[in-house]
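REQUEST FORM: STRUCTURE PREDICTION
Request ID: SP-0412
Submitted by: Lab K.M.
Chain count: 1
Length (residues): 229
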Amino acid sequence: MDERHNGASGARGPRLQAAGDTVDAPPNPLRGLSYDASYLTDFLSTISGPVVLVGHSYGGMVITNAATGNPDVKALVFDDAYIPAATDTLLGLTSAEPGSCLAVSPAPFNVVPYPGAPSGDVDLYVKQSVFPGCFANGLPAAKASVLAATQRPLAASALTEPSGTPAWKSIPSWAVIGTADHVIPLAGQLNMARNAGAHVTEINAPHLSMISDPGAVATVIIRAAQATS
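STATUS: Completed
RESULT:
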């Protein structure tokens, strides 16, 4: 296969490269949905297709918006990801079904100002005391602690910015759903995936399924590439 898999990262990359694929892992700026989607759209314009676009968590919202109207993107893969419809928000989808470890009070974030922020915007870090059990349940404690310490912040404005026309309306989609995900409850993931008409693969994994079971995630990406080649 000569498909590019964009957004593939971590342990999935070597597996995809071993399958003969070109892998790019562009950064997600985490500055807000429209900004982040525009950044990815611009990146996609610099490479040739066909492309299988992969998004994890909030990255699912980014790829849903960035791929709209791009004929080179042949498949979307959502890995424990948000799969928004038009006007959906990250905050709304997180609390759509009960049980998210992020939809609690008091809020599980450390709030940090950042230079040049629009009025009222701040960076959000998941508290290090919350991160292991929220994002990395099932992973070794030492690994979870490192992930908590090295997390990148998300601009708070990303929580309430509405999503645009979804790319999954015209691009075939696949969803890897971790049944032990504490960030996006299983019912919420299934509802979003079914609404998008995605091919669903359920695995026993936390929110960071690409770390806990990279082989299963890579298999779905390769399956999507083969089905759309």
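NOTES: Residues 37 and 128 are 28 Å apart (CA to CA).
Reviewed by: T.R.
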